[in-house]
Specification:
mainly alpha
């Protein structure tokens, strides 16, 4: 049995098309409030540290951009004033999608939906009827890629 492409696994897990849209990593630069803080504070499991990290975030001008990126891409730590657990719940109890997985998924979707069924089947080592099922599963994501 062939391992399903990342894009197919995501679709089967109910990852929405919005979740694979590119969310750029904010340009943090000099303006971020956490720049001079110990990064370990933002990855601590202690409630007191999480609370302190969140308070630092709340004084940051990039809090929204940081939170938007982290909701999609970060499973650990405090980002954008949100804890890992809060972001997990905002994602609908789903794991974050790494930028690498997101890029691969977008490339796969474009390939699966645009190449011939025979070419896709040969490329992934599956039957053409499997490609037809994949295309049906990926159809809602067509507008994203």
């Amino acid at each position: 049995m062939t391992k399903a492409p990342i894009s197919i696994r995501m679709a089967r897990q109910g990852v929405s098309p919005i979740a694979i849209q590119q969310v750029p990593l904010p340009s943090f630069g000099e303006r971020v409030a956490c720049r001079s803080s110990d990064s370990e504070l933002f990855f601590s499991e202690r409630a007191q540290d999480i609370s302190l990290a969140k308070s630092i975030c709340h004084s940051c001008p990039l809090i929204r951009a940081c939170a938007k990126w982290a909701i999609r891409h970060e499973d650990y730590g405090v980002f954008g004033g949100l804890s890992a657990k809060e972001r997990y719940l905002l994602r609908g109890a789903k794991a974050a999608i790494s930028p690498q997985e997101q890029e691969i998924a977008c490339q796969e979707i474009a390939y699966i939906l645009s190449a011939s069924a025979r070419e896709v089947a040969l490329g992934f080592g599956v039957e053409t009827r499997t490609v037809a099922r994949w295309r049906k599963l990926l159809a809602p994501m067509k507008e994203v890629v």
